[in-house]
Write a structure and sequence with these properties.
This protein is an alpha+beta fold. The protein is built from 10 helices and 12 strands. The strands form 3 sheets. A 5-stranded antiparallel sheet has the order 2-1-7-6-5. The protein has a 5-stranded mixed sheet with strand order 9-10-8-11-12, sandwiched between helices.
């Protein structure tokens, strides 16, 4: 660290120095070695230091230790050229947002802008103007989290964590486009839980919700990473199964049917079964594909439930 120095800059304009010291904008002036030569009252209040504690100290005192060497390099570049070589923003400049530390080690978000000064003896200084933007950044973070939450709600079913109806149908449409382009096989399965309404009526919706959560977990364990499980609504589920034939898709759904029948769900250890209609894509619209799968599901239900049917 450079030796401590408390020699003030030899600025010829006393009125300018008076303005710097009295303005509510946080301002500091550092010498070529990066040591504080002037800090106004607003700067001291922002960081929680007294003027005496800062004068002569290196400006990196208010920077996290892991960033200090980088800041020294940037300071030297600014003293030489009047520009920072800022690796964080990827372009030269003397204005940037930073996370700095106050006297208690608490993080402060600031917007800092610097100008290069020269006194009447040819000494070069850096004057930095600092604005506390912590509240603004906190609001940005809150908005970002809210947007992420809204995206989560739009993309995924809140109860089961499966894809939502809207997101799932968009995924199916994308898979149809892939099939049309490359000719890969594509199948879907529309699944309905047998007797789910009766369970809701008998045991309450809380138990019904537990069943849906348990089935969602079973699907995540049973499906490939390339597959998609969607909650269309209520107890109706949709599986998107790219890259498999109708018979292969039927075998996959049959394994799920058997696993569900063998897995008691909820704290009441209820036994559940499913019925499913399976359809392979045949150069048709999304609605037509879903309609064929629905008709196959109804066929499975009419045949006694707890079974599968292939669409014709």
């Amino acid at each position: 660290m450079p030796p401590r120095s408390t020699c003030p800059p030899h600025f010829p304009d006393a009125a300018l120095m008076t303005l710097i010291r009295s303005t509510p904008l946080a301002i500091c002036i550092t010498d070529a070695d990066g040591c504080f030569q002037v800090v106004n009252a607003a700067y001291c209040r922002l960081y929680g230091y007294t003027e005496e504690e800062l004068l002569g100290e290196e400006f990196t005192l208010v920077v996290a230790p892991e960033h200090r060497e980088m800041m020294r390099t940037m300071h030297r570049a600014f003293i030489e050229t009047g520009e920072d070589n800022d690796p964080l923003i990827g372009k030269p400049g003397a204005r940037a947002e930073w996370e700095v530390l106050d006297r208690q080690g608490r993080s402060i978000s600031i917007l800092a802008e610097a100008v290069r000064l020269e006194d009447d003896q040819g000494n070069v200084y850096k004057a930095t103007f600092v604005v506390d933007i912590s509240e603004h950044k906190a609001l940005e973070r809150s908005l970002r989290k809210a947007n992420q939450r809204l995206t989560q709600i739009a993309m995924y079913d809140e109860l089961t964590g499966l894809q939502s109806r809207r997101a799932g149908l968009e995924r199916l449409e994308a898979e149809i486009h892939e099939q049309q382009r490359y000719g890969h096989p594509l199948c879907i399965a529309v699944i309905d839980l047998d007797g789910f309404k009766q369970i809701n009526d008998t045991h309450g919706h809380a138990i019904g919700d537990e069943i849906l959560v348990g089935i969602a977990e079973l699907l995540r364990r049973s499906l490939r990473e390339s597959d998609a499980a969607i909650r269309l609504g209520g107890d109706e589920l949709l599986l998107v199964l790219p890259g498999v034939t109708l018979d292969q898709a039927t075998q996959a759904v049959e394994r799920i049917r058997q696993a569900l029948a063998a897995t008691p769900l909820t704290r009441l250890a209820l036994e559940m079964t499913l019925s499913a209609g399976i359809a392979d894509y045949r150069n048709e619209s999304q609605d037509a594909l879903l309609e064929r799968a629905d008709r196959a599901l109804y066929l499975a239900k009419r045949r006694g439930r707890n079974r599968l049917a292939q669409a014709t």
